[in-house]
Task: inverse folding
């Protein structure tokens, strides 16, 4: 029996359309023995290499080439696993969602903690990048549960654009260095300042989008205690609590 798609998937990043064509072509060339789970593991291995390259860059800038290779592997595995499953019509929506996005959380933790542990940024500001990712991820997952819509990108920026930004950062470290710019609170680099700005923008966006989404959902569901007009739910004994019939799984 064919499984029903669990949610609507929206990807509207700047490079989404061009990337989709490349990934479909690559998926069509994959040997039959390559499974989506294999590609997920490749993506995880790439993130480990990327984080290790950043953390070891204090020993030698040559380690940053490990970061570049790791980013390429992470893109290859993480972007191709779902496309391969869809091309072969072997999707498992619940399992795929769980494995794909838990591996994403681990991958981004490895990458951004590698940046935080590198000598090129302060640990505090490096972890702000990880917190920025987690805020965006949490908003995405909460909205997926409440609206059944999974939005991958915000303001044209998705996982691939983030990887490109990290690639540019890696190459800039190898060519011009970390670029220290101030000593008021200790040495800060350009990346430190960017991390603070990124966190501020993401936090502000998180709050604003959460408020807007809450208002939209409140308007669509009516006031507490209001009887659903289209048979979407059933009322319990309490006049202020409605439990929908639809299950999440």
Result:
């Amino acid at each position: 029996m064919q499984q029903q798609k669990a949610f609507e998937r929206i990807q509207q990043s700047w490079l989404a359309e061009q990337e989709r064509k490349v990934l479909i072509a690559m998926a069509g060339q994959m040997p039959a023995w390559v499974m989506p789970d294999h590609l997920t593991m490749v993506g995880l291995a790439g993130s480990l290499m990327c984080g290790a390259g950043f953390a070891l860059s204090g020993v030698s800038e040559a380690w940053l080439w490990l970061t570049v290779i790791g980013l390429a592997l992470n893109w290859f595995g993480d972007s191709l696993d779902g496309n391969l499953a869809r091309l072969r019509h072997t999707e498992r929506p619940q399992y795929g969602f769980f494995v794909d996005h838990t591996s994403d959380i681990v991958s981004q933790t490895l990458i951004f903690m590698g940046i935080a542990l590198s000598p090129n940024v302060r640990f505090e500001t490096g972890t702000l990048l990880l917190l920025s990712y987690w805020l965006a991820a949490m908003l995405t997952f909460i909205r997926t549960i409440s609206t059944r819509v999974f939005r991958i990108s915000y303001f044209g920026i998705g996982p691939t654009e983030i990887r490109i930004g990290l690639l540019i950062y890696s190459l800039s470290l190898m060519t011009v260095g970390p670029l220290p710019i101030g000593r008021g609170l200790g040495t800060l680099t350009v990346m430190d300042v960017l991390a603070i700005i990124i966190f501020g923008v993401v936090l502000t966006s998180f709050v604003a989008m959460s408020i807007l989404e809450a208002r939209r959902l409140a308007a669509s569901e009516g006031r507490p205690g209001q009887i659903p007009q289209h048979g979407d739910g059933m009322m319990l004994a309490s006049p202020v609590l409605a439990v929908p019939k639809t299950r999440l799984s």
In short: The first strand starts at residue 8 and ends at 10. The longest helix spans residues 190-221. The chain has one domain: 8-222.
